[in-house]
Amino acid sequence: MYSEKVMDHFQNPRNVGEIENASGVGTVGNAKCGDIMRMYLDIDDDGIIRDCKFKTFGCGAAVATSSMATELVKGKTVQEALEITNKAVMEALDGLPPVKVHCSLLAEEAIHAALWDYAQKHDIKIEGLEKPKSDISEEEDEEDY
Amino acid sequence: MYSEKVMDHFQNPRNVGEIENASGVGTVGNAKCGDIMRMYLDIDDDGIIRDCKFKTFGCGAAVATSSMATELVKGKTVQEALEITNKAVMEALDGLPPVKVHCSLLAEEAIHAALWDYAQKHDIKIEGLEKPKSDISEEEDEEDY
Amino acid sequence: MKKLIYLDNAATTKTAPEVMEAMIPYFTEYYGNPSSVYDFAGISKKALDESRETIANALHAKENEIYFTAGGSEADNWALKATAEAYAAKGKHIITTKIEHHAILHTGEYLEKLGYEVTYLDVDEFGVVKLDQLKKAIRPDTILISVMFANNEIGTIQPIKEIGEIAHEQGILFHTDAVQAFGQVPIDVDEYHIDMLSASGHKLNGPKGIGFLYIRKGVKIRSFVHGGAQERKRRAGTENVPGIVGLGKAVELAVNTMEERTAKEKELRDYLIDRVLKEVPYTRLNGHRTNRLPNNANFSFQFVEGESLLIMLDMDGICGSSGSACTSGSLDPSHVLLAIGLPHEIAHGSLRLTLSAETTKEDIDFVVESIKKIVTKLRSMSPLYED
Amino acid sequence: MKKLIYLDNAATTKTAPEVMEAMIPYFTEYYGNPSSVYDFAGISKKALDESRETIANALHAKENEIYFTAGGSEADNWALKATAEAYAAKGKHIITTKIEHHAILHTGEYLEKLGYEVTYLDVDEFGVVKLDQLKKAIRPDTILISVMFANNEIGTIQPIKEIGEIAHEQGILFHTDAVQAFGQVPIDVDEYHIDMLSASGHKLNGPKGIGFLYIRKGVKIRSFVHGGAQERKRRAGTENVPGIVGLGKAVELAVNTMEERTAKEKELRDYLIDRVLKEVPYTRLNGHRTNRLPNNANFSFQFVEGESLLIMLDMDGICGSSGSACTSGSLDPSHVLLAIGLPHEIAHGSLRLTLSAETTKEDIDFVVESIKKIVTKLRSMSPLYED
Ligand SMILES: Cc1ncc(COP(=O)(O)O)c(C=O)c1O
Ligand SMILES: Cc1ncc(COP(=O)(O)O)c(C=O)c1O
Ligand code: FES
Ligand code: FES
């Protein structure tokens, strides 16, 4: 079902945990599947993401995308982090089954939510960042037979 | 599917053939299954059935019941022959599958038809004998699902 | 047991040893439910995918257009009932033929009770659908044309491509019951404009109880069996994994051997037909002389009744059929033989012999002698026959 | 391959070796079509009859009340759709429960679209139907009550006899989906007032793709699959002879071993339940403590998500399930766990382990240790859990 990369990040998730006094914390959930992801960012004064940690209640794909997202985010600037899409996360994981695409959206949204929290706390405006939704579930486009 | 007795009478049918100048000949058919049975009777002046032959276009059960019916009829009086029911023929054959019961009716009716022909030709009234139907098919009582 | 000459391969076939070998592990070793999450069940899932791919390739279709069913009858029921339902808003008229299998005919009658209108097309004396009659039968509210690829009794192959073209020109769905044809003749769903196609495993040396419905992408058919999310949510029920594996293997074999196998069958079939027609008087061949299934021969012996003939052949170790095996519970003469214009009593004396790859010339010689002997005997007992 | 501890026997089971042995000859040797006339096919016919008799005896039913289907889903669909159709003149109201399998629930939804009304009964916290609510739900136009014998997720066994009595007092048909119960608990269709009962072969060490619907004589159900005259004209399609033989053998084994086997399973199940509840904090048992299937354990681990749990168990060679296998394509939390009142996020962390006759105490010990380790790990990753 899952690629080897996904299984690796699921079994040995990178950056699990919390950051005390994080620069930004974002929590997002998907009402449809009930899963929840929380992302912690440690951002220095130059706007570089020094550290990133996560906690996830969710499926294998949710755990793996969280893990991969933290890896991708680390060392990036805020602006670069903003450009990390769920597609990029999926690609880095060698893909996800169709039914699991939404899990990667959770990761994208968790980054945005954490950045938004950072922006709010530091009273910064980040170009292109919108207030994140707390629930990222979308309409399934599957047919009903 | 068929009992051993049926198979025996089917493989080695007794009394196949025709009787020239028969005392009575009866032909009956079943429109539903398309089968036809012709019975020849040779009846002496005392009303005893001396000989009986048949020709049948029909299923295994039709052939076997024809054969058995001729056996049962031989040596009987007209009145006795009249009382041979399809049930008696079936019992003598150790039974028939339910879907084949109507084939034995063909035999009963063929005897009646031959007796009727005999009565007509000799201007006799046989007690209890009615003009036979040329088609013995009845309504199937199977349910339709 | 005495030697058996099995010439009823249109009724069902022997499961091929290669098919058995492919299936067995999925009963006792890889028995996982393909829907489960763990790796062990992934083996079952993969087996399904592979079978689906083999079948799709055989039809020039795509994998996600193959939906497994419990057999040909379910596929036929599904195709008719669930498109009728889905397209009811467009219209309630369906066209089929008088010579379809009962899985189509009785489903048609059922739909008529629900308020649909069904046109049953005639066929000519060889069992071929008349294309001009088909064209005339089409109405604005026609939603489906269902014509069998090849007939199970007389073996006649229909002009499927032409029918498909007519259907698609008019924007009407085209379903074909290919239960008898699949594995015997090459089929290309695109070339033939087929939107749905039914097939059954046990007709091509696969297992019984498994079949499939090909559904072209875009066809808005409803579910027939509701429940779990199997078969892309279109057909519920835990997948018959061994059956599906066996079907895949059978299709692979059928496709790989088709050319050689059917050439040999055709040769033997023609030898059988020629000898019987020449050596048994008052005999006719039913169906088309050339446009027929490679393994099918169907005769009518005048003045002879079918069941008696079959039982006597059986006593010689020969398995044949008279009309369709599925309907042998019924006493009606074959609707197919009536449709090609045979009178009642001739329709009654039909014999279908359907060969397999294992049939030999010796078998055929034995069968011809047996037929000659039996037909003579039955005719001598027949009140219809005067010599 | 590493050792496999297969604890997903509610999803599907291994085909028993005795079942294989019984089936194999009917693939390759006695492959005749039971509808055919010749003796060779009589062997297949006889095999069908014997299987039917075995199954009828297991239910205290009559042979001609057993109708073979392709599995539990088809049987459920048939029971609901074809009685709805047959009794529509009497009424269009059906009563079932919120915890049925999707084969019933989605069929119910389908019938609602056709204009039927379906009442879905609640269950209590243990998953038991409330009899007073059932009584109140009955209306003059109620034609059918369908309540599953035992639930596939939480294993709760329903008060079937009481439900049957209520149904029959009111002259209403009673169907039960016994796919999980048949072979695990004794069933007597007369004592329990059951009019129709669904079962599936692969849940009791029989093959996949075969099942049956028991239909009490006199029930006026329509056909679901139309076509040939098989199954007393009620279910068309060439019979899956090997499957039917295998099912018969599986039922014979299940009945013969039931007492001993389930006693052993119950003991192991209780050992598993006791250890998990004692050794893993924030854990609950779902379903009824005693009125449950002998082989079923179902837990909820708070702050833990089901799929992650399953994948980690899989890495330890343990096959379990979270909710029903059939719905694992779906992301919705189990409708059964919601129906017994679990909140969304707890419903999510459920684990079903279903034992077989082959399960050992060593297996259970290994599984408990694995669960402890995994639950701790997942909780440490969970944003919901604060230690
Ligand atoms: C209670 C219940 N009913 C019906 C079914 C459907 O059975 P099958 O998958 O054999 O069609 C299942 C199992 O999947 C079940 O557990
Ligand atoms: C043309 C045709 N259609 C449908 C069927 C039904 O297939 P099955 O018996 O596998 O359901 C058959 C064979 O019985 C057939 O010959
Ligand atoms: S299923 Fe919900 S995050 Fe993957
Ligand atoms: S079936 Fe017609 S006489 Fe037997």
From TrEMBL, chains A, B:
Chain ranges of the NIF system FeS cluster assembly NifU N-terminal domain: 1-122
Superkingdom as given in the UniProt entry: Bacteria
Pfam families: NifU_N
Swiss-Prot/TrEMBL GO biological process terms: iron-sulfur cluster assembly
GO MF terms, alphabetically ordered: iron ion binding; iron-sulfur cluster binding
PANTHER family: IRON-SULFUR CLUSTER ASSEMBLY ENZYME NIFU HOMOLOG
Name of the featured protein: Fe-S cluster assembly scaffold protein NifU
Organism: Diplocloster agilis
